[in-house]
Amino acid sequence: MHHLLWPVCALALMTAACDNGGAVRITSTSSGKDTAGVLKVVDALQCPQTQGVLTRKGSARADGNTCVYSGPRGSEVTLHLVSLNGGSARDALKAFEDRLSADLPEALAEARANEDRARAEAVRAEADAARAEAEAERAGADAERAAAMAGAAADAAADSAHISAPGMRIDAHGDKATVRLPGMHIDADGDRANIKIGGITIRADDKNSQVKVRSTDEVVSIDAHDNTARIRTSTPGEAVRATFLMTADQSSTTGWRVVGYEARGPSGGPIVVATVRGKDRNENRVFEAAKALVTLNVGD
């Protein structure tokens, strides 16, 4: 029964992604300050001639704050040493994100339009969730009477489900389903679903090919749509450990197709930021090399 897919998929998220041709696979790990290494305070960048698939272009800047690398298929990586000067790392990284996003103007415009729609959807989703909750309560109150209705049509019975036990309630009918388990809330209605598992919220709209994932402590944030995707990660703790990635299905008028950064450093700075620009969505080796440059300078 199609209406039971969302509860099953949500439970499967604890161990693996749903086996669906258009599924989004999400793996999240985090290391707190007890397990993460101590990051170094540096006053000048180390810029080796080569790092993985990257080759340094020219000499490192005399001030020791910037060096530029070229990679395969025209990709570029720039290593920055950023002094916070009493400001916040969040503001400094937001400036990098804004500049990088501007290199994908079409994707940025689509992302902003999607954000506007998402805000409207969030308001509607909250109303839908409240209505689903009320309907579930009514369904629970009517469960005994419904079970006693021997004349119910067989096809209706086959397309409905009600399970109630201490700490658990599942109500499903047609394309609608409501699931309440300890630490988990699921409200599904046709192509749309809202899933809450612990501190993680997932809003999915299959009709619009949209998946939004949020965690309350901002460890991971994923916005995926038909033509664009934006991913942000950060690790809790006193140090700065953050990544940003934005991709587009088609090359932008600027020639780029993927942009992002890897950033690390002490919370008071300076922080080391490696910005990446690529012309192919599959730039894993470039990002790995950029991350290695950051690690070389401030540690892991």
Protein topology:
Elements: H1 5-12, E1 50-51, E2 54-56, E3 66-70, E4 76-82, H2 89-101, H3 105-141, H4 143-147, H5 154-158, E5 160-165, E6 168-173, E7 176-181, E8 184-189, E9 192-197, E10 200-205, E11 210-215, E12 220-224, E13 228-234, E14 240-248, E15 258-265, E16 271-278, H6 284-298
Antiparallel strand pairs: 1-2, 2-3, 3-4, 4-16, 5-6, 6-7, 7-8, 8-9, 9-10, 10-11, 11-12, 12-13, 13-14, 14-15, 15-16
Protein name: Methyltransferase type 11
GO biological process, one term: methylation
Organism: Brevundimonas pondensis
Q: Would you mind describing this structure in some detail?
A:
This protein is of the alpha+beta class. It has helices at residues 5-12, 89-101, 105-141, 143-147, 154-158, 284-298; strands spanning 50-51, 54-56, 66-70, 76-82, 160-165, 168-173, 176-181, 184-189, 192-197, 200-205, 210-215, 220-224, 228-234, 240-248, 258-265, 271-278.
Distance between the termini: 47 Å
Q: Helical segment tally?
A: 6
Q: Report the uncertain regions.
A: 1-35
Q: If you average the pLDDT, what whole number results?
A: 78
Radius of gyration: 24 Å
Quick one: biggest sheet?
A: 16 strands, antiparallel
Coiled coil: 108-149
Protein name: Methyltransferase type 11
Keywords: Coiled coil, Methyltransferase, Transferase
GO molecular function, one term: methyltransferase activity
